[in-house]
Structures are given as structure tokens and as C-alpha cells.
């Protein structure tokens, strides 16, 4: 979805309520009128938003609300279907519904597919998201090359270990850089997070269960910040990233430590859990 | 279409027995041989691959087979024939050259291998005025590195070949007539200031004595288009230096001329390290320029092209056997078709793609 860059902090309420229909966030500053107006309107919108992705924008075009992330496509545009197998099916094999859907899509307006979403067999959405997060200033070429060099570095390090190890250990050593990457990020995901909630004029850090997307985002964000900041000036990013990924794969290293710190803080502030109202 | 049953030629078949039926198959070079024959000259990505797989495997391809055929039938009484390997970027010119060098080393030829002539015309920090000829400039660092590698590659010849002239280095040191060539090389390595002159002497002596028949000489230069282009080097007064004014280049040009007999000259063109040449240029006329082409004329051009389907399949099989392709989808038909499309059967691109899959 095409999103414009707007300052996030303006209307945080909308940002979160647009994405997670079921989890509103607390109002930051007491008397901000859009936020007060938003709550009932958004509640109404949420009632209808058990709907398909494309229609979300239509639902929340209510007066008085400004969306933080919005796209130039109107509500009538459908998402493109990127799947070679879907289009290769001969007409005879289609079921009633699929036939109907095909005919429908011939007349509907369809959004343009983003350049990064391909029907390549080697494509991985997690890798694409991570590359986008590593990207600075729109330099996707550099970010992608760093990502590929990281995967290559991980692979070569694992091959070194494989050749140096004995026969029994060779069965345990994982050489696929993609499985290592996915497992490392999964190991770094926190289970519980802290959210600042305003009560009686003070902000309290309240432990809160995090949704899937927030957890994945936090894992990737921690990995990238750690590699950017805690490396030697002359060390290259792929080398550092591959090192950190391998450590996270084995549940060691600074990113895992940060996850554990977050868990400990949540455990320490256990008493404040009552401040959560959702 | 996948050709089933592409096997690798793992056995150490004597290189002389490589024929057309071996095209597309890989052969193994033992690692000790690698260190002895190639102290320098292998492409860096190939070195990384050798380190990762713990084995060095080269694919036997048509250009190399053609060259081997010519080399096997060389007439050592005729002047040295010049063979020029040319092709687009990443097609395997340098590795074909390495194949030839390995063959000749096994046949006990003396290998004069300049790994990359482009390194001698750019990024040189210390240029000294030559002691031998005031107009020319010395490159002590590059010359000494090359001499060290030359010594590793051709140990056994250094004691056999005798110098035919007396060379005076400075007031205290000189090399007598009849002393082994190893002494000249040692002098060049220890006294870095005289390294360029030592290289010049080595080249001159080898050229003179190759006709005598004690040894066969193979001159292998990678990136020969550096000898006749421009350099990026400048003097202290910021005036540009032409390649002729560098002693190393001047001596190498004399080597590449075909006025000696008793060996062969195999050259490779390369745009990758070249200076002031457009990226898409790969033909000899474009890369060598008028001067270079006229000097090298007549030569035998050998085109190195991308993989044909059989070679591509063989390369993929090789990677699969070493379990280099770890991605699950890479084993499937769709994955192979995609690799074919993305790399356009270019060997260099395929290697880079498979590195992260």
C-alpha cells in the first residue's frame, strides 16, 4: 500500500487504531480534541471493520479524522494477486467461485504491485521487511547488497564450522542462512512489552502483551540498532550482522539480552498491570 | 531440460587427457599444487570458494580446450604465438587462463604469470626514479611482491637458469655472470629499491634463454590492455605518466612481442580493473586501442562466452553436490529456471547469486 511519510507523533491514536482494530491506545495529551472525537467514531468504525483489507480505508473516512497513513488509491481498488500458479490454472479446472472471481477482477480496478513483491520462488517477506528497515535514504540497492552479503557471510561461517566438526556434530550444524535468519529473529522476539500509560499526571510503564507484528518489528529493530551502534568503526555491517544473527540463533548475544531485560522490567512492574484496561 | 547423470570428473586425470568429451565437467586441483602454482593470480571469489569447499574445482570449457590443443601442438622453433582470451565481464577468462597455467605447470614449463597488469598502472603510492634509466619510473612495492610470488611458483628453475651477463646493483653489490637466476630474484626481494630492475633482468634473461631449449616459457598476462592505455598515476608536479615511462610496463611490452621462440604467450583482456574504458567494452579493438592492437597483431583471439545449457547444468550440479545451494526452492525446476534467467548463464553472476541462496 502506498503510504506517505507524515510525522507519526501527531495522532498516535489513529495510527494504532487503524492497524489493530481491537486495541486502542491511550490518549497522550489530555485535551487533544481529535483524540476525544476519535474514540466514539473509531469505535463505530471498528464495528464494521471485520472486513477485507482493501475496504479499511473506506471505513475510516469519517469527518474530523485525519489519517496518518493513507494511500492515493480509492476504496474501489483491489489488491493485486501475485501468484504464478493462480494464473496458470487452465480454465477448465476452475471452480464456480474462482471463475466468478476471475470475471469480477476483469472489470475491477486493481492497484499496481510494488516493485519488491515478485512471483520469484526465492522471495521472502521477512527478508524484504528487514531489508527495508536497514535501508537509509531510499538506497534499496545498498540495503539489498548488504543483506545478500550478510546471508553469504552466515553461510560461509557455517560451512567453516561444518568442515571443522566431527561426524556427529555435522548433523546438528544448520547451514541454511534463511532458517538461521528466521530462527534468530524468532528467538529475539519479546513476549511482553512496556507501554507508557498516563495516570494522575504521571506516566507509568505498564506491562502489556504485544501483538505478532509489534514483536517482529521490535526484534528486527533491536537487531539493526545493535549492529549499527555497537560495532567497531572499521567493521562492515554484513560481518557484524552475520555474527549477531548466529549468536541470536544460539540464544546468546546482546539482542537476546535486551529481550530478557525487557522481560525483567515487565516482571518488575507487574503491580502496575491493573492500569491496563484492554 | 535437466540432463540427468552429469557426473564430476573428480579423479586427477592428467590434464593432457582432457578432450571434447570432458567438456562441462569439473576437475580437481590438489590444494598443495594450488599453493605452489598459484601464489597469486586466482580471482578473489574463487579463492573464497576454495577456502569454503576445501577443494579447488575448475570446469573444463571449450576456450580452454581449444587453447590446450594449440599448446600441445606448438612448434617451439617458430616464434611464440600470442593467444588473446576476450569476452564480456564474468565469463571466465581469468579461470581459463588459470587452467592453462596449471596444464603448463604440470608439463614443467616455466610460468611467467602476471596476475593483473592493471595493478601496475593505478594506485601506486611510491614511485621512484629509475636508477637504470633516468626517464623511467620504478615501482618497488609491486615489483617486490611479484618477485616473491614468481619465486614460489618457479622454485626449481631458479637454480637451473644461469645469468649470462654481469649486473652491478650499486657500489657494493653485483651479480656475476653465470650465477643462478635465484640470486637476482633474492636481490630484488631484499633490496626493494632495485626490485624493478631485478624484474627487468629476469624478463630479459628468460627471453634470451628460452630459445636454448632447456625449458619452455609460458608468458601469461591478465588484463593486458593495461599496457597500452593510460595510467591514473601522476608525478609530483601533477603531470600524467604514460605507461611507457613505467619500467615494469616497458619491460613487459618487450616480453609480449613475438621475437623469441621456445614457448607461448597467453593474454587476457579485462575491463573490470581497467582505467578510462567504458563498462560495456570487451572486444580487443576497443580495449587495446589502436597502439595495443597494432603491437599485438597478429594474434589468435579466443572468445570466452557464457555457459551453454550443459555447462550451466553441470555448474548447478556441482553446487548441489557441495550443498552450496541451501535454499529449498533452489533444488526445484522452477528455481533452476529462475537462476538461469537471473544470471543469463553468466558464470560470474551465477556464482554471486548462488552465494546467498
Automatic annotation (TrEMBL), chain A:
Highest taxon in the source lineage: Eukaryota
PANTHER family: RIBOSOMAL PROTEIN S7
Localization, UniProt: Mitochondrion
Keyword Cell cycle part of the UniProt annotation: no
Protein name: Small ribosomal subunit protein uS7m
Organism: Equus asinus
InterPro entries for this protein: Ribosomal_uS7 (IPR000235), Ribosomal_uS7_dom (IPR023798), Ribosomal_uS7_dom_sf (IPR036823)
Family: Belongs to the universal ribosomal protein uS7 family.
Keywords from the UniProt entry: Mitochondrion, Ribonucleoprotein, Ribosomal protein, Transit peptide
Residue ranges of domain Small ribosomal subunit protein uS7 in the record: 116-270
UniProtKB/TrEMBL annotation, chain B:
Signal peptide interval: none
GO cellular component, one term: mitochondrial small ribosomal subunit
GO-annotated biological processes: apoptotic process
One Pfam family, short name: DAP3
Any one GO MF annotation of this record: structural constituent of ribosome
Subcellular location field: Mitochondrion
Record keywords, A-Z: Mitochondrion, Ribonucleoprotein, Ribosomal protein, Transit peptide
InterPro entries: P-loop_NTPase, Ribosomal_mS29, Ribosomal_mS29_met
PANTHER family in the record: MITOCHONDRIAL 28S RIBOSOMAL PROTEIN S29, SMALL RIBOSOMAL SUBUNIT PROTEIN MS29
Family, as annotated: Belongs to the mitochondrion-specific ribosomal protein mS29 family.
Protein name in UniProt: Small ribosomal subunit protein mS29
Natural source organism: Equus asinus (Donkey)
Amino acid at each position: 500500500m502506498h503510504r506517505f511519510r507524515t510525522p507519526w507523533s501527531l495522532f498516535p491514536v489513529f495510527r494504532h487504531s487503524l492497524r489493530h482494530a481491537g486495541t486502542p491506545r491511550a490518549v497522550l495529551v489530555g485535551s487533544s480534541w481529535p483524540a476525544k472525537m476519535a474514540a466514539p467514531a473509531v469505535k463505530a468504525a471498528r464495528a464494521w471493520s471485520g472486513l477485507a483489507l482493501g475496504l479499511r480505508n473506506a471505513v475510516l473516512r469519517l469527518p474530523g479524522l485525519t489519517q496518518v497513513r493513507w494511500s492515493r488509491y480509492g476504496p474501489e481498488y483491489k489488491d493485486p494477486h501475485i501468484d504464478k500458479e493462480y494464473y496458470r490454472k487452465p480454465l477448465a479446472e476452475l471452480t464456480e467461485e474462482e471463475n466468478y472471481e476471475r470475471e469480477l477482477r476483469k472489470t475491477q480496478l486493481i492497484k499496481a504491485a510494488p516493485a519488491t513483491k515478485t512471483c520469484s520462488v526465492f522471495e521472502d517477506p521477512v527478508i524484504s521487511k528487514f531489508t527495508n528497515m536497514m535501508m537509509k535514504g531510499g538506497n534499496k540497492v545498498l540495503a539489498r547488497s548488504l543483506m545478500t552479503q550478510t546471508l553469504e557471510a552466515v553461510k560461509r561461517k557455517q560451512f567453516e564450522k561444518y568442515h571443522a566438526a566431527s561426524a556427529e556434530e555435522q548433523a546438528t550444524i544448520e547451514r541454511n542462512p534463511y532458517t538461521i535468519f528466521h530462527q534468530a529473529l524468532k528467538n529475539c522476539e519479546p513476549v511482553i512489552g512496556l507501554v507508557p500509560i498516563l495516570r494522575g499526571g504521571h506516566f507509568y510503564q505498564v506491562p502489556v502483551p504485544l501483538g505478532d507484528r509489534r514483536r517482529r518489528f521490535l526484534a528486527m529493530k533491536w537487531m539493526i540498532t545493535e549492529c549499527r551502534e555497537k560495532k567497531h568503526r572499521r567493521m562492515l555491517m554484513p560481518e557484524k550482522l552475520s555474527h549477531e544473527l548466529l549468536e541470536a540463533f544460539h540464544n546468546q548475544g546482546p539482542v537476546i539480552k535486551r529481550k530478557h531485560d525487557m522481560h525483567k522490567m515487565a516482571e518488575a512492574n507487574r503491580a502496575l498491570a491493573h492500569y491496563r484496561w484492554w | 531440460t535437466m540432463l540427468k547423470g552429469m557426473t564430476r570428473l573428480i579423479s586427477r586425470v592428467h590434464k593432457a587427457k582432457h578432450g571434447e568429451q570432458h567438456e562441462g565437467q569439473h576437475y580437481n586441483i590438489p590444494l598443495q599444487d594450488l599453493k605452489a602454482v598459484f601464489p597469486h593470480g586466482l580471482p578473489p571469489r574463487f579463492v573464497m570458494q576454495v577456502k569454503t569447499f576445501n577443494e579447488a574445482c575448475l570446469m573444463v570449457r571449450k576456450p580452454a580446450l581449444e587453447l590446450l590443443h594449440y599448446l600441445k601442438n606448438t612448434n617451439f622453433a617458430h616464434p611464440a604465438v600470442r593467444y588473446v582470451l576476450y569476452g564480456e565481464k564474468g565469463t571466465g577468462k581469468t579461470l581459463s587462463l588459470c587452467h592453462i597455467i596449471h596444464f603448463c605447470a604440470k608439463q614443467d614449463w616455466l610460468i611467467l604469470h602476471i596476475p593483473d597488469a592493471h595493478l601496475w598502472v593505478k594506485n601506486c603510492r611510491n614511485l621512484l626514479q629509475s636508477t637504470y634509466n633516468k626517464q623511467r619510473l620504478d615501482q618497488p612495492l609491486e615489483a617486490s611482491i611479484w618477485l616473491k610470488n614468481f619465486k614460489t611458483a618457479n622454485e626449481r628453475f631458479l637454480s637451473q637458469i644461469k645469468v649470462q651477463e654481469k649486473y652491478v646493483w650499486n657500489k657494493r653489490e653485483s651479480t656475476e655472470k653465470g650465477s643462478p637466476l635465484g640470486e637476482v630474484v633474492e636481490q630484488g626481494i631484499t633490496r626493494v629499491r632495485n626490485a624493478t630492475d631485478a624484474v627487468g633482468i629476469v624478463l630479459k634473461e628468460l627471453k634470451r634463454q628460452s630459445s636454448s631449449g632447456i625449458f619452455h616459457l609460458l608468458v601469461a598476462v591478465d588484463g593486458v590492455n593495461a599496457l597500452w592505455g593510460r595510467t591514473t598515476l601522476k608525478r609530483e608536479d601533477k603531470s600524467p605518466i604514460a605507461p611507457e615511462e613505467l619500467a615494469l610496463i616497458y619491460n613487459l611490452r618487450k616480453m609480449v612481442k613475438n621475437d623469441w621462440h621456445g614457448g607461448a604467450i597467453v593474454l587476457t583482456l579485462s575491463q573490470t580493473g581497467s582505467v578510462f574504458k567504458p563498462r560495456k567494452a570487451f572486444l580487443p579493438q576497443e580495449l587495446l586501442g589502436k597502439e595495443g592492437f597494432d603491437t599485438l597483431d597478429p594474434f589468435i583471439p579466443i572468445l570466452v562466452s557464457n555457459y551453454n545449457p550443459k555447462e550451466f547444468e553441470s555448474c548447478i550440479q556441482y553446487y548441489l553436490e557441495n550443498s552450496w545451494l541451501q535454499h529449498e526452492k533452489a533444488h526445484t525446476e522452477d528455481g533452476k529456471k529462475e537462476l538461469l534467467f537471473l544470471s543469463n548463464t553468466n558464470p560470474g553472476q551465477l556464482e554471486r547469486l548462488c552465494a546467498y541462496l
